[in-house]
Amino acid sequence: MTRRTHHTARSSVRFRNQMMAAAGLCAVLAALSACSSSDKHSQSPSSAATSPSATQDSKEQAAGDAALAAWRGMDTEMVKAYHRGKSSGTKLSTYAADKALSKIESELFQYRQAGVHFEGEPKSTAKVTAVDIESTPQKATITECLDTTGWKAMQGSKNVTSPNQVQRYTVTGSVRTIGAQWKIVDYTVDKELAC
């Protein structure tokens, strides 16, 4: 009887020790899982802090995209203006300003005086080659390969495009912010630089 009681008492002590160990293990596991769970949250992309260089890169990318969109907008409106022989009725001034707009208006005037308009469309491959978002205003440089193979100077119904004209050349544009809007403020045509 005593033996049995002693055995039972020993069993009950052992059982209690096992239960305490199990409870301790559960507490440790719960803590680990909480840590692990919070680690997952802290490492998730949505809640992770963005590094300064990644933020800078994304701002430069956004600025470059906006500058390129302005360049493409100017190209589209230029084609319309050269088809009509005038910029009125286009949104050219939305995308071009300063020297760029003056150069376009001057060319349009000369062509209008000669009775020349354009038909077809040039093809453009443009890319951002520099961005400066630290300056005020912000600035960008665009380099374009312009292919004028399908772009014809017409006088009435007569094609007056020079047969010796270079048809693929490089145009470099200066783009900057004016207020919140990116605009092309100047460009240089280099017909010696084929592309």
| Regions with little confidence, pLDDT below 50 for 5+ residues | 1-48
Strand content: 25-35%
CATH C-level class of the largest domain:
Alpha Beta
The N- to C-terminal Cα distance equals 105 Å
Order of helices and strands: HHHHEEEEEEE
Largest sheet: 4 strands, antiparallel
Second-tier CATH architecture of the largest domain: Roll
Biggest β-sheet: strands ordered side by side in the sheet: 2-3-6-7
Q: Could you please say which CATH topology of the largest domain applies here?
A: Nuclear Transport Factor 2, Chain: A
Determine the mean pLDDT.
81
How many separate helices? 4
Description of the molecule:
The structure is a single chain. This protein has 4 helices and 7 strands. It has helices at residues 2-43, 52-84, 92-95, 98-113, and strands at 116-120, 123-132, 139-147, 151-155, 158-159, 168-178, 181-190. The protein is α+β, with helices and mostly antiparallel strands. It is 49% helix and 27% strand. The termini are far apart. It is elongated. The protein folds into 2 domains: 1-31; 56-190, Nuclear Transport Factor 2, Chain: A (Roll), CATH 3.10.450.240.
Note the main attributes of this structure.
195 residues; alpha+beta; Nuclear Transport Factor 2, Chain: A; four-stranded antiparallel β-sheet; three-stranded antiparallel β-sheet
List the helices and strands and how they pair.
Elements: H1 2-43, H2 52-84, H3 92-95, H4 98-113, E1 116-120, E2 123-132, E3 139-147, E4 151-155, E5 158-159, E6 168-178, E7 181-190
Antiparallel strand pairs: 1-4, 2-3, 3-6, 4-5, 6-7
